[in-house]
Amino acid sequence: MSTVHDDPARHRDRGWRLSRFAGTILVVCPRCGGRASAVTRPGLPELRYYTEYQYRPRRLVCAGCGVVAEWEAEFRGGALYGATLGGTEDPFFGQPLWLQVRCAGRILWAYNAEHVTELAEYLAARHRERGALRPTMSLFARLPRWMKVAAHRDEVLAGLAKLQELADRSMPADRSAAAHAHDVHPRPRRESFYRGRPY
Q1: What is the CA radius of gyration of the chain?
Q2: pTM (two decimals)
Q3: Within a domain: 78
Q4: How far is CA 84 from its chain centroid?
Q5: By Cβ atoms counted within 10 A, which residue in 10, 81, 90, 117 is the most buried?
Q6: Contact 142, 64 (CB under 8 A)
Q7: Could you give the CA distance from residue 18 to residue 173 in angstroms, rounded to a whole number?
């Protein structure tokens, strides 16, 4: 559930990271091209930190064609290696994100509808306040400059509105023309976490 701000013209950064929105990632189904979901495998202990999403076993499921795939972080040398979040592809299965559109000559993407809502609230605000807890590590502080400049405000907000519409659609014909692999932010596939398991 997205958080509603009291004053839509003002946004205060609460220090949330991208990992907060990684519980469910909407992706393009590798079989039918419709909307599938990359979710944490059910039955795991309660989440303690959002960063644990990067290491928890995942399941890709498509309600349209029934495809199912599994992913697990690699455990070797006493350390767990999980996924690195970011970019236009799902970091677990390598599938293009379902929520991506062309915007201001670039690709605008999000993991799910809640992610889109938070981005829209931040980018629509006329006054943006930094949070007190490690502000440079937050999702909003790390957004690319082109998304935050005033000249692109209307175009980016229109793009986010399109993403909200896409979040409610699931058929292969609904797929955005931009929902393909782009390597916009090429990142390493794994990063080490710590010794032991986070769940």
Answers
A1: 17
A2: 0.86
A3: yes
A4: 11
A5: 90
A6: no
A7: 29
